[in-house]
């Protein structure tokens, strides 16, 4: 069927290494680039505040990139199945192309839309773009999915290597008459009353060009210290690519191949290997979500349903959220999160362990807070990592492995630089709980889980 090609952008806000966009260009018809803000389809999780802030700026960047190449980004909101179909009719489109998503609700939308469009004679095709190894391609010897990271990643590495990234198109020819579009500002993705995003603006520059610059800076300047210093929150040795990957401003294929190239050139092979395994952890999160869609709501290990969570104490939860626990490393992490929409991964584990195992607050309350405040929160990695710390998830740390925030600070922030930056007023005399007593209480509560096995 002839007619313009619609490229439906989702979590792939880039023009380089975008298979759906490349396929549309190969069709030889004008290209309509579409983004749908969908908070209405059944089961699709509405974005948190920090994510909405990032999305606004990433969409603006993508629109500018497309305009430079002869097109523009069409914005529409509503249930995606209906909105995409309406756009097809408005534009008399002959094809709709997108890059695949892996959450259950998103896949249901895509499957229904694909069936409906094909019945109408519209060409529909989807592509792999946001993960290196699609979840159904990695199987155990008996054909099951994996629940432990090390054999999962070993199986991934035994598969054919990830494909090379696709080049960035120089031109994206738009239609002679573009469909109607919403005004991005009218979506009200940015906070206004109050405007709490000052720290995000100071910290981040969303968009594909900034993502590319960040990758190059990491590989050129930081990769060498990654293996040795990645657990030190004040060292600045991490890639800071997680929000870039979450929004697809850069593809995992680009990150993979440029890291491999750096290692082959003789630079920092050990650090490169370690960093690639962190990409593998991201893959494992999506693998787990695909096979266990209720990851944000239900314990992956059902025996944890027996855990005797006490009644929620709102004052304790708020103290944790605001970084007012009297535990310096915890408070520093939570204040970094509130200010920047980000937290160092080592500190994420510490603050999560403190909430679950010292405050005895259900991991789902912490996951919800991170969902609202992290710029890199996605439907796989956020709940996956919370369940890992809780002990209820895949490849989980045993529940009795409780991160002592004082020992963690002594080991990974020995000179106190991280705490001094984010929580200089934290005073251990103001601790809201006793670490030793609450650790023992958590271990005693864990006995209920052991009895449920």
TrEMBL record:
Keyword Ribonucleoprotein assigned: no
SUPFAM superfamilies from the UniProt entry: Cryptochrome/photolyase FAD-binding domain (SSF48173), Cryptochrome/photolyase, N-terminal domain (SSF52425)
Domain Photolyase/cryptochrome alpha/beta: 3-132
InterPro entries registered for this protein in UniProt: Crypto/Photolyase_FAD-like_sf (IPR036134), Crypto/Photolyase_N_sf (IPR036155), Cryptochr/Photolyase_FAD-bd (IPR005101), Cryptochrome/DNA_photolyase_1 (IPR002081), DNA_photolyase_1_CS_C (IPR018394), DNA_photolyase_N (IPR006050), Rossmann-like_a/b/a_fold (IPR014729)
One Pfam match: FAD_binding_7
Statement: the UniProt record of this protein carries the keyword RNA-binding: no
Protein known as: Deoxyribodipyrimidine photo-lyase
Organism: Microbacterium awajiense
